[in-house]
Specification:
Length: 232
């Protein structure tokens, strides 16, 4: 379980570490979609005050900090040393208490079963060899009635055209090589994995990019980016 790791992917995101908190840099899309994600999580969970929250694959802590500011008790895990160093420093600078740890979600599940009210796992599943292993670990980590939020990318020609050719090579919104089309996950596939992990699919919603406004909006269109919410 602890070997569900792609070292090339970890190295790829380690190289982004210095740019995590630059809203106009290589992580710009994350800054654009973060408010949407936070609003959606709030909409589905209500108040996060004193809720135990785990952010899986936290990177530089963009989502982790937003959840901590809402009063959640946040633990955040990642495997990239450079990203975690940036995350810890930024949290300290903003007087935020976040428990950052270098650990796989599978290892964390062995130590903290049924510990969390809410788990977020954003844009990680398409970067690991075994997405089901991550989902299964999240299921173990959730308290009964706990909520899991997964975001990933649909696998179809539209996503390949817009995200890889468009975003990486033409618009250069993200670095070249960020995405591997073969690792994208169709909503039907993700729903099946979630149910296999003994979780109930509660909702699924798309994040649609508005090119001329350079912003995202929540949408029923799940052709490219989407969020699935499940409950234990």
């Amino acid at each position: 379980m602890s070997q569900n790791i792609d070292l090339n992917e970890i190295d790829k995101f380690s190289q982004l570490a210095v740019d995590w908190w630059n809203p106009n840099g290589k992580c710009k899309p994350l800054h654009i979609i973060n408010p949407l994600r936070v609003d959606y999580i709030q909409q589905k969970c209500g108040s996060l005050t004193n809720q135990t929250v785990l952010d899986v694959g936290c990177g530089g802590g963009i989502l982790s900090e937003s959840l901590a500011k809402l009063g959640a008790n946040v633990t955040a895990i990642d495997l990239a040393d450079e990203s975690l160093a940036v995350a810890k420093m930024h949290a300290e600078q903003n007087d935020l208490t976040i428990n950052y740890q270098k650990q796989t979600v599978e290892e964390h599940a062995q130590q903290h079963p049924e510990h969390y009210d809410v788990i977020t796992c954003m844009e990680l599943l398409e970067h690991v060899p075994d997405p089901f292993s991550v989902i299964q670990a999240c299921s173990v980590l959730l308290k009964p009635n706990g909520k899991l939020f997964l975001s990933t990318i649909n696998r179809n020609h539209k996503a390949k055209l817009l995200l890889i050719y468009g975003a990486e090579y033409i618009a250069r919104l993200v670095p070249k090589g960020t995405h591997d089309f073969n690792r994208f996950i169709r909503p039907s596939e993700l729903m099946a994995l979630v149910e296999q992990a003994n979780l109930d699919v509660e909702a699924i919603i798309g994040m649609e990019y508005l090119l001329f406004k350079n912003q995202f909006k929540l949408s029923s269109n799940v052709d490219i980016n989407y969020i699935l919410m499940a409950q234990k």
